Amino acid sequence: LEAREAVLVDVREPAEHAAENIQGATLLPLGGVSKSRLPDCTGKKLVVHCRKGGRGGSACEKLLAEDPALDIYNLEGGIEAW
Fold first, then answer.
1. Model confidence pLDDT, tens digit, residues 13-28
2. What's the pLDDT tens digit per position in 54-70?
3. Which of 20, 23, 47, 63 is a good FRET partner for 82, with 20 to 30 A between their CA atoms?
4. CA nearest 10: which of 61, 59, 55, 49?
């Protein structure tokens, strides 16, 4: 993130994000996840996170179904591990 080689997307709900978040993460709740709503990640890795990793995994699956070429990662352990 510091080297600007990755884009971080938080797929938790707005209240969760407001209570605790990773600086620079873009909020995009899981229910609204789609490739068209992603921030620009051209030439960068797309890293998705939630609280523990479950919703992040679901978001990755949903996005890869839309575009199998995405360079996407689920933050293992979510924000709790961060």
1. 999 999 999 999 999 9
2. 999 999 999 999 999 99
3. 63
4. 49
Biggest alpha carbon distance in the chain?
33
Query: Could you give the C-alpha distances from 28 to 3, 16, 25, 67, 82, in angstroms and in order?
Result: 22, 12, 9, 17, 18
Q: What ranges make up the beta strands (E) of the chain?
A: 6-10, 26-27, 45-49, 72-74
For the beta carbon of residue 35, count every other beta carbon within 10 angstroms. 14
- Evaluate whether 65 touches 36 at the Cβ level (below 8 Å): no
Measured CA to CA in angstroms, residue 21 lies from 14, 50, 61, 65 at distances of 10, 10, 23, 27
Q: What is the distance between the alpha carbons of residues 24 and 8, in angstroms, rounded to a whole number?
A: 7
